[in-house]
Amino acid sequence: MICKTLIALFAAALFSVNCLAQESQPSIKEDFKPSTLNQPGQEYPQVNSQGYARFRIQAPLADSVRVSLGLGGRGGTILTKGEDGFWTGTTEGPMDEGFHYYNVKIDGGKFNDPGALNFYGSVRWESGIEIPAHDQDFYALKDVPHGKVEQILFPSKSTGTSRRAFVYTPPSYEKDKSKKYPVLYLQHGWGEDETAWSNQGRANLIMDNLIAEGKIKPFIIVMTYGMTNEVKWGRIRDFSIDPFQTVLTQELIPYVDANFRTLANRDNRAMAGLSMGGMETRMITLNKPDIFGYYGLLSGGVYAPEDLKDKAKPKLVFLSCGSKERPDGVKKAAADLKAAGYNSVSYISENTAHEFQTWRRSLHQLAPLLFKN
After folding, report:
1. If you average pLDDT over every residue of the chain, what do you get?
2. Parent domain of 70
3. What b/e string do you get for 184-196 counting C-beta neighbours within 10 Å, with b at 16 or more?
4. CA distances to 201, 264, 272, 366 from 363, in Å
5. Same domain as 208, residue 354
6. Distant-in-sequence, close-in-space partners of 373: CB < 8 Å, separation ≥ 6
7. Among the three residues 85, 107, 132, which one is the final residue of a domain in this structure?
């Protein structure tokens, strides 16, 4: 009798928990629309107003299809096969706002979604999806004057080849041929390349909009490959900064100063980077404090006062990360620097993790602080 009573109580409790879980799970709104990063004419993937993503993949002979995008630690989103040979599925919950990489696994093989545009990340071209953000206006394409992003090929004796960089010049650059500009050297993260900040980060649109609003002093941005992807993930400690430091400081910067109208001095030169690009920024600015006057680490570590002691004092140290990363460490590091007499600013991107929405917002906050008189 006791066993039967316990079983009945357990069943009732389980039923109650399931009911509560179902009641607490928000219903999914069926207002899905194609992602803004879809290939022309492609209906899927789609996103809805709540931030859910829905996928539809044609694979009639497949036994299993899974999309890597999903809630953290849950292995992505499993798709279900329909009679028409299409596999369909929706993320278990809403995704963080902004840009996300993802891929499709069909019977264990890794492929890109044929409906989505591709972006270089994770040391390969990955599919990309954009979850609409409440603050997306600051990187939206607007009817304002636009700057130019151009590819340059600069000679590199240290590597024995020409290397590529992308240079953003503000809208006024072509109008006044006598004016010179400060320069920000902006680095990507591990697995990415020199296309990341323009494509995934929308750095040029962020700049165009800030300039149009009169919120920043116009400046040039230079984006080049940080030579990061030769080191395997998990072996980041083995990375040597020396080859890239040589390329950047002895080859790229002189080339930019010779071929663009720059203010070629420390007080008008900044370096910043996201993730591993932040780690590069930290190493190079500590090694070469006479070259850069402004430092920015975006989810890329911190400086301590003792790191900067007895070196040329930076005009600004900017530290940022997402609220889902380690914000307390960033805030404390900035406070410690400020207490030690440094101009230090911290920024925390709310409700984002180690992802491009964090870094878009960080650039948006950093840019107005650069090159102030």
Report:
1. 92
2. 33-132
3. bbbbbbbbbbbbb
4. 9, 22, 9, 5
5. yes
6. none
7. 132
